[in-house]
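Long-time lurker. I teach an intro course on protein structure, and each term I like to show students one example going from raw sequence to a predicted 3D structure in token notation. This year I'd like something fresh instead of my usual example. Would anyone be willing to generate the tokens for the chain below so I can use it in lecture? Attribution to the forum is fine with me.
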Amino acid sequence: MASANGDGFGDNPQGGFSAGASLDVYEAVYRLVMTAYRYRCALTGEQFTPDIGLVHPHLEVVAIRPRDAGGPLAIDNYLALEEHAARAFRAGHFVIEDDYRVVPPVAGALAPAIRPHASGHLLVPDEPLFRPNPAHLAFHRRMVLGR
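-- Reply from a regular --
Happy to contribute to a lecture. Here you go:
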């Protein structure tokens, strides 16, 4: 049951992660995503070594449903993608079905380096709770495909 202020479990499970979330919360989610994906690109499978700094130089944590569009600050709303795949995902050059199948709306729009990976399945974390949420994937598909 949700509390009176909307925080906690229930209809608003991410209520505690408001738009004013601290930098520490963002950092914790970033590190959790990188760890859950084992520093591997979810699209290409390319493995990266962990970086000492906060931001990895070649691997990005990308929101499926952006925060400014109501996306929660939760691991199931983020993907670990190498920089070219991250750019392509944000631009809508590929979408992800609920079964994690990768679908490019326009095959020619993908960069040659990631084109071979656009007909397979996304690599997702072993832990089901950390996998991309179908509701967030559906939001991304609606924004890209209008469906």
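Some talking points for your students: The chain is about 25% helix and 10% strand. The chain has one domain: 23-145.
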